[in-house]
Amino acid sequence: MQFSTIVLSTALSAxxxxxxxxxxxxxxxxxxxxxxxxxxxxxxxxxFLVRTTDGCTIIPPGCKSALRLIxxxxxxxxxxxxxxxxxxxxxxxxxxxxxxxxxxPSSTLGVGSLKVICTV
Length: 120
Ligand SMILES: *[C@@H]1O[C@H](CO)[C@@H](O)[C@H](O)[C@H]1NC(C)=O
Ligand SMILES: *[C@@H]1O[C@H](CO)[C@@H](O)[C@H](O)[C@H]1NC(C)=O
What we know:
Structural class: alpha+beta
Shape: globular
Keywords: Signal
Bound molecules: 2-acetamido-2-deoxy-beta-D-glucopyranose
Signal peptide: 1-18
Helix content: 10-25%
CATH superfamily: Crystallins
């Protein structure tokens, strides 16, 4: 009885370790483009998921110019930085009123990182 309990719990632990870490539901979804005008066909990252729990998130290399918000939870803001550590002063902040619009935060420096902050 005791032995079989130990075998079972060991098997369960192994299953947990083998599974990918659970991720929180996304707070927003964006398409990021390699050109400056959200031109169809130049998406370098489609359906890029953003989460408050991810903190500062690096935008994939080559996704340098523009982005379009697909969804963003109410009461959340997406803050975009030109550097890769969410520390640059050159930022834009957009909320759910920008869903569907093409954003060109920096035509010269490009976009480097982002984070989402929600008030609820
Ligand atoms: C955006 O968020 C505000 C604040 O929560 C909400 O009142 C509004 O209905 C939302 N708009 C859309 C388009 O989701
Ligand atoms: C959303 O962004 C618009 C444009 O920047 C701003 O006028 C508005 O106050 C913002 N709404 C919220 C709920 O932050």
